[in-house]
Amino acid sequence: MTHGSRAGTRAQGPTAATGLLGDTKARDYARKLQLFNAFAEPEIRRAVATLGLNPGERILDAGCGTGEALNWLFDAVHPEGLVAGLDLAAAHTATARLNASSEIHVLQGDLLRAPFADASFDLVWSVNAINHLRDPLPAIQALIGLLRAGGRIALGQSSLLPDMYFAWDSRLERLTNEAVRQYYRDRYALSERDLTQIRSVVGLLRRASLRAVTVKTFMIERILPLSAADEAYLREAIFRDTWGERLRPYLSGEDFDDLAQQCDPFHPRYALHRPDFHFLQTFTVATGAIGK
After folding, report:
1. Can you list the positions of beta strands (E) in 42-183?
2. Which of 202, 197, 196, 157 is nearest to 180 (CA)?
3. What is the C-alpha separation between 115 and 107, in angstroms, rounded?
4. What is the predicted pLDDT for the residue at 20?
Protein backbone atom coordinates (compact mmCIF):
# COMPACT_ATOMS: atom_id res chain seq x y z
CA MET A 1 0.00 0.00 0.00
CA THR A 2 1.71 3.12 -1.13
CA HIS A 3 1.09 6.03 1.18
CA GLY A 4 3.22 8.93 2.26
CA SER A 5 2.57 12.33 3.80
CA ARG A 6 2.53 15.32 1.42
CA ALA A 7 1.30 18.11 3.64
CA GLY A 8 -1.09 20.43 1.85
CA THR A 9 0.17 19.68 -1.67
CA ARG A 10 -1.45 18.37 -4.79
CA ALA A 11 0.08 16.52 -7.71
CA GLN A 12 3.68 15.41 -7.39
CA GLY A 13 3.74 14.14 -10.97
CA PRO A 14 3.52 10.57 -12.27
CA THR A 15 6.40 8.11 -12.19
CA ALA A 16 5.56 6.16 -15.31
CA ALA A 17 9.05 5.19 -16.46
CA THR A 18 8.97 1.79 -14.77
CA GLY A 19 5.22 1.48 -14.53
CA LEU A 20 5.39 1.96 -10.78
CA LEU A 21 3.15 4.26 -8.78
CA GLY A 22 5.71 6.04 -6.66
CA ASP A 23 7.83 3.09 -5.57
CA THR A 24 11.60 3.17 -5.90
CA LYS A 25 14.47 1.18 -4.48
CA ALA A 26 15.05 4.00 -2.00
CA ARG A 27 11.45 4.26 -0.81
CA ASP A 28 10.90 3.40 2.83
CA TYR A 29 7.48 2.87 4.37
CA ALA A 30 8.57 -0.04 6.52
CA ARG A 31 6.84 1.34 9.60
CA LYS A 32 3.47 1.37 7.89
CA LEU A 33 3.94 -2.17 6.59
CA GLN A 34 4.87 -3.41 10.04
CA LEU A 35 1.84 -1.69 11.54
CA PHE A 36 -0.48 -3.30 8.98
CA ASN A 37 0.97 -6.78 9.38
CA ALA A 38 0.66 -6.63 13.18
CA PHE A 39 -2.91 -5.34 12.83
CA ALA A 40 -4.10 -7.84 10.19
CA GLU A 41 -2.05 -10.86 11.32
CA PRO A 42 -5.06 -12.95 12.43
CA GLU A 43 -6.84 -12.54 9.10
CA ILE A 44 -3.72 -12.98 6.96
CA ARG A 45 -2.83 -16.16 8.83
CA ARG A 46 -6.34 -17.45 8.19
CA ALA A 47 -5.91 -16.65 4.52
CA VAL A 48 -2.63 -18.56 4.40
CA ALA A 49 -4.33 -21.53 6.09
CA THR A 50 -6.91 -21.73 3.29
CA LEU A 51 -4.19 -22.31 0.68
CA GLY A 52 -3.64 -25.91 1.76
CA LEU A 53 0.14 -25.65 1.70
CA ASN A 54 2.19 -28.79 2.22
CA PRO A 55 5.63 -29.42 3.71
CA GLY A 56 8.27 -29.38 1.01
CA GLU A 57 6.64 -26.78 -1.22
CA ARG A 58 8.58 -23.79 -2.54
CA ILE A 59 7.01 -20.34 -2.08
CA LEU A 60 7.88 -16.85 -3.29
CA ASP A 61 6.45 -13.82 -1.49
CA ALA A 62 6.53 -11.27 -4.32
CA GLY A 63 6.47 -7.84 -2.70
CA CYS A 64 7.29 -9.22 0.74
CA GLY A 65 7.62 -5.81 2.40
CA THR A 66 8.99 -6.10 5.91
CA GLY A 67 8.69 -9.86 5.85
CA GLU A 68 6.26 -10.82 8.60
CA ALA A 69 4.31 -13.13 6.29
CA LEU A 70 7.49 -14.97 5.28
CA ASN A 71 7.54 -16.74 8.64
CA TRP A 72 3.82 -17.56 8.44
CA LEU A 73 4.35 -19.16 5.01
CA PHE A 74 7.47 -20.96 6.19
CA ASP A 75 5.57 -22.50 9.10
CA ALA A 76 3.37 -24.29 6.54
CA VAL A 77 6.13 -25.80 4.37
CA HIS A 78 9.12 -26.49 6.61
CA PRO A 79 11.27 -28.43 7.24
CA GLU A 80 11.77 -29.54 3.63
CA GLY A 81 10.17 -26.51 1.99
CA LEU A 82 11.65 -23.22 0.86
CA VAL A 83 10.40 -19.66 1.18
CA ALA A 84 11.90 -16.62 -0.56
CA GLY A 85 10.95 -12.96 -0.33
CA LEU A 86 11.36 -10.28 -2.99
CA ASP A 87 10.82 -6.55 -2.61
CA LEU A 88 11.92 -3.49 -4.57
CA ALA A 89 12.79 -1.27 -1.61
CA ALA A 90 16.15 -1.70 0.10
CA ALA A 91 14.76 -0.60 3.47
CA HIS A 92 12.04 -3.23 3.29
CA THR A 93 14.33 -6.11 2.42
CA ALA A 94 16.75 -5.05 5.17
CA THR A 95 13.91 -5.18 7.70
CA ALA A 96 12.60 -8.45 6.28
CA ARG A 97 15.98 -10.10 6.76
CA LEU A 98 15.84 -9.13 10.42
CA ASN A 99 12.27 -10.39 10.83
CA ALA A 100 12.52 -13.61 8.86
CA SER A 101 13.97 -16.96 9.85
CA SER A 102 17.58 -17.45 8.82
CA GLU A 103 16.37 -20.24 6.52
CA ILE A 104 14.34 -17.78 4.43
CA HIS A 105 15.96 -16.09 1.44
CA VAL A 106 15.20 -12.35 1.02
CA LEU A 107 16.27 -10.53 -2.13
CA GLN A 108 15.91 -6.97 -3.36
CA GLY A 109 14.51 -6.77 -6.87
CA ASP A 110 11.66 -5.87 -9.21
CA LEU A 111 8.93 -8.49 -9.51
CA LEU A 112 8.72 -7.67 -13.24
CA ARG A 113 12.29 -8.96 -13.53
CA ALA A 114 12.51 -11.35 -10.60
CA PRO A 115 16.00 -12.82 -10.09
CA PHE A 116 14.87 -16.45 -10.08
CA ALA A 117 14.99 -19.26 -12.61
CA ASP A 118 11.83 -20.26 -14.42
CA ALA A 119 9.75 -23.00 -12.77
CA SER A 120 11.25 -22.38 -9.32
CA PHE A 121 8.14 -22.21 -7.12
CA ASP A 122 4.92 -24.02 -6.31
CA LEU A 123 3.21 -20.85 -5.09
CA VAL A 124 3.67 -17.14 -5.62
CA TRP A 125 2.05 -15.16 -2.80
CA SER A 126 1.70 -11.43 -3.45
CA VAL A 127 -0.19 -9.14 -1.08
CA ASN A 128 -0.93 -5.45 -1.66
CA ALA A 129 1.78 -5.37 -4.32
CA ILE A 130 0.36 -5.36 -7.83
CA ASN A 131 -1.70 -2.27 -6.97
CA HIS A 132 1.64 -0.44 -7.19
CA LEU A 133 1.74 -1.06 -10.95
CA ARG A 134 0.07 0.92 -13.69
CA ASP A 135 -0.57 -2.32 -15.59
CA PRO A 136 -0.65 -5.38 -13.31
CA LEU A 137 -1.11 -8.00 -16.05
CA PRO A 138 2.53 -8.13 -17.25
CA ALA A 139 3.64 -8.63 -13.64
CA ILE A 140 1.26 -11.56 -13.20
CA GLN A 141 2.50 -13.06 -16.46
CA ALA A 142 6.11 -12.65 -15.29
CA LEU A 143 5.27 -14.38 -12.02
CA ILE A 144 3.56 -17.23 -13.87
CA GLY A 145 6.90 -17.97 -15.50
CA LEU A 146 8.36 -18.69 -12.07
CA LEU A 147 5.83 -21.46 -11.34
CA ARG A 148 6.34 -25.18 -11.63
CA ALA A 149 3.73 -27.33 -13.38
CA GLY A 150 0.49 -27.04 -11.44
CA GLY A 151 1.78 -24.05 -9.47
CA ARG A 152 -0.47 -21.32 -8.15
CA ILE A 153 -0.55 -17.56 -7.73
CA ALA A 154 -2.34 -16.06 -4.72
CA LEU A 155 -3.06 -12.34 -4.95
CA GLY A 156 -4.04 -10.67 -1.69
CA GLN A 157 -5.60 -7.22 -1.72
CA SER A 158 -7.00 -5.04 1.04
CA SER A 159 -10.10 -2.90 0.81
CA LEU A 160 -11.78 -4.05 -2.37
CA LEU A 161 -14.87 -2.63 -0.66
CA PRO A 162 -14.76 0.77 1.09
CA ASP A 163 -13.59 0.56 4.69
CA MET A 164 -15.85 1.72 7.51
CA TYR A 165 -14.24 3.95 10.14
CA PHE A 166 -16.97 6.28 11.33
CA ALA A 167 -20.05 4.09 11.76
CA TRP A 168 -21.84 7.15 13.14
CA ASP A 169 -20.96 9.53 10.26
CA SER A 170 -21.23 8.00 6.79
CA ARG A 171 -21.11 11.45 5.20
CA LEU A 172 -17.67 12.36 6.60
CA GLU A 173 -16.41 8.87 5.84
CA ARG A 174 -17.56 9.16 2.21
CA LEU A 175 -16.02 12.61 1.77
CA THR A 176 -12.73 11.41 3.29
CA ASN A 177 -12.58 8.37 1.00
CA GLU A 178 -13.30 10.57 -2.01
CA ALA A 179 -10.56 12.99 -0.93
CA VAL A 180 -8.03 10.16 -0.65
CA ARG A 181 -8.90 8.92 -4.14
CA GLN A 182 -8.62 12.44 -5.57
CA TYR A 183 -5.25 12.89 -3.86
CA TYR A 184 -3.91 9.77 -5.58
CA ARG A 185 -5.42 10.72 -8.93
CA ASP A 186 -3.63 14.05 -8.72
CA ARG A 187 -0.37 12.63 -7.43
CA TYR A 188 -0.03 9.93 -10.10
CA ALA A 189 -2.01 11.53 -12.96
CA LEU A 190 -4.57 8.72 -12.90
CA SER A 191 -8.22 8.50 -13.79
CA GLU A 192 -10.80 7.05 -11.42
CA ARG A 193 -10.93 3.96 -13.63
CA ASP A 194 -7.14 3.55 -13.46
CA LEU A 195 -7.19 3.78 -9.70
CA THR A 196 -9.91 1.18 -9.23
CA GLN A 197 -8.79 -1.46 -11.77
CA ILE A 198 -7.14 -3.44 -8.96
CA ARG A 199 -10.64 -4.36 -7.77
CA SER A 200 -10.69 -6.91 -10.60
CA VAL A 201 -8.15 -9.34 -9.13
CA VAL A 202 -10.29 -12.24 -10.34
CA GLY A 203 -10.38 -10.75 -13.83
CA LEU A 204 -6.61 -10.30 -13.85
CA LEU A 205 -6.06 -13.98 -13.08
CA ARG A 206 -8.48 -15.01 -15.80
CA ARG A 207 -6.87 -12.66 -18.32
CA ALA A 208 -3.57 -14.34 -17.51
CA SER A 209 -5.16 -17.66 -18.58
CA LEU A 210 -4.93 -19.22 -15.14
CA ARG A 211 -7.32 -22.05 -14.33
CA ALA A 212 -9.25 -23.03 -11.20
CA VAL A 213 -9.61 -19.38 -10.17
CA THR A 214 -11.07 -19.03 -6.69
CA VAL A 215 -11.57 -16.10 -4.36
CA LYS A 216 -12.08 -15.71 -0.62
CA THR A 217 -12.72 -12.48 1.27
CA PHE A 218 -11.97 -12.14 4.97
CA MET A 219 -13.53 -9.42 7.07
CA ILE A 220 -11.20 -7.50 9.37
CA GLU A 221 -13.54 -6.28 12.07
CA ARG A 222 -12.64 -4.37 15.22
CA ILE A 223 -14.58 -2.81 18.09
CA LEU A 224 -13.58 -1.51 21.50
CA PRO A 225 -11.48 -2.43 23.34
CA LEU A 226 -8.76 -2.24 20.68
CA SER A 227 -5.46 -4.03 21.05
CA ALA A 228 -2.30 -1.93 21.01
CA ALA A 229 -1.54 -3.19 17.48
CA ASP A 230 -5.04 -2.26 16.26
CA GLU A 231 -4.92 1.25 17.66
CA ALA A 232 -1.35 1.88 16.46
CA TYR A 233 -2.25 0.95 12.87
CA LEU A 234 -5.45 2.95 12.73
CA ARG A 235 -3.96 6.00 14.47
CA GLU A 236 -0.57 6.15 12.75
CA ALA A 237 -1.03 4.54 9.35
CA ILE A 238 -4.53 5.77 8.59
CA PHE A 239 -5.49 8.79 10.68
CA ARG A 240 -2.06 10.44 10.46
CA ASP A 241 -0.24 9.15 7.37
CA THR A 242 -3.01 8.27 4.90
CA TRP A 243 -5.29 11.13 5.88
CA GLY A 244 -3.68 13.91 7.89
CA GLU A 245 -2.67 17.29 6.57
CA ARG A 246 -2.45 16.25 2.94
CA LEU A 247 -6.25 15.97 2.72
CA ARG A 248 -6.78 19.60 3.73
CA PRO A 249 -6.94 20.86 0.09
CA TYR A 250 -9.58 18.27 -0.73
CA LEU A 251 -12.08 18.95 2.05
CA SER A 252 -13.97 22.02 3.19
CA GLY A 253 -12.48 23.75 6.24
CA GLU A 254 -15.37 22.55 8.40
CA ASP A 255 -15.09 18.94 7.24
CA PHE A 256 -11.30 18.88 7.62
CA ASP A 257 -11.59 20.23 11.18
CA ASP A 258 -14.23 17.61 11.94
CA LEU A 259 -11.96 14.86 10.59
CA ALA A 260 -8.92 16.18 12.44
CA GLN A 261 -10.76 16.18 15.76
CA GLN A 262 -11.88 12.57 15.36
CA CYS A 263 -8.34 11.53 14.44
CA ASP A 264 -6.68 13.34 17.37
CA PRO A 265 -6.01 11.01 20.34
CA PHE A 266 -6.01 14.04 22.67
CA HIS A 267 -9.39 15.36 21.54
CA PRO A 268 -12.62 14.37 23.37
CA ARG A 269 -14.12 13.29 20.01
CA TYR A 270 -11.30 10.86 19.18
CA ALA A 271 -12.90 8.08 17.15
CA LEU A 272 -10.90 5.18 18.59
CA HIS A 273 -12.12 5.88 22.12
CA ARG A 274 -15.83 6.06 21.27
CA PRO A 275 -17.94 3.22 22.67
CA ASP A 276 -19.67 2.90 19.28
CA PHE A 277 -16.42 2.56 17.31
CA HIS A 278 -16.82 -0.23 14.74
CA PHE A 279 -14.20 -0.75 12.01
CA LEU A 280 -14.61 -2.94 8.92
CA GLN A 281 -12.06 -3.70 6.21
CA THR A 282 -11.93 -6.49 3.65
CA PHE A 283 -8.93 -8.63 2.81
CA THR A 284 -9.37 -10.66 -0.37
CA VAL A 285 -7.25 -13.51 -1.72
CA ALA A 286 -7.73 -14.68 -5.30
CA THR A 287 -5.87 -17.75 -6.50
CA GLY A 288 -5.31 -19.34 -9.88
CA ALA A 289 -3.26 -22.28 -11.15
CA ILE A 290 -1.25 -22.94 -14.28
CA GLY A 291 -1.64 -26.01 -16.47
CA LYS A 292 -4.60 -27.86 -17.91
Report:
1. 58-62, 82-87, 105-108, 121-127, 147-158
2. 196
3. 8
4. 61
Judge contact between 77 and 102, C-beta under 8 A.
Answer: no
Residue 172's Cα: distance from chain center in Å? 24
What is the amino acid identity at position 133?
L
Mean per-residue pLDDT of the chain = 91
Q: Number of helices and strands (H, E) in the chain?
A: 9, 7
Task: Give the pLDDT confidence of 7-43 residue by residue, as tens digits.
Answer: 233 333 333 334 566 678 878 889 999 999 999 999 9
Peptide bond into 79 cis (omega under 30): yes
Under DSSP, is residue 168 helix (H, G, I), strand (E, B) or coil?
coil
Asked if 103 and 39 count as a contact pair (C-beta separation under 8 A), the reply is: no
Distance CA 163, CA 166 (A): 9
Q: What is the DSSP code (8-state) at residue 208?
A: T
Alpha helices in 83-169 (DSSP H): 90-99, 136-144
The DSSP letter of residue 197 is: G
For the chain, the straight-line distance linking the first and the last C-alpha, in angstroms and rounded, comes to: 33
pTM: 0.90
Single out the residue of 283, 288, 138, 124 nearest to residue 205, CA to CA.
Answer: 288
User: Under CATH, which number does the domain 30-289 receive?
Assistant: 3.40.50.150
10 Å CB burial of residue 17 (0-12, 13-18, 19+) is exposed
Distance, in Å, from the CA atom of 136 to the CA atom of 139, rounded to the nearest integer, reads: 5
| Exposure b/e, 229-254, CB count within 10 A at least 16 = b | bbbbbbbebbbebbbbebbbebbeee
Distance in angstroms (rounded) separating the CA atoms of residues 231 and 239: 10
Q: Among candidates 227, 222, 215, which has minimal Cα distance to 278?
A: 222
Nearest-angstrom CA–CA distance, 260 and 270: 9
45 has a pLDDT exceeding 80? yes
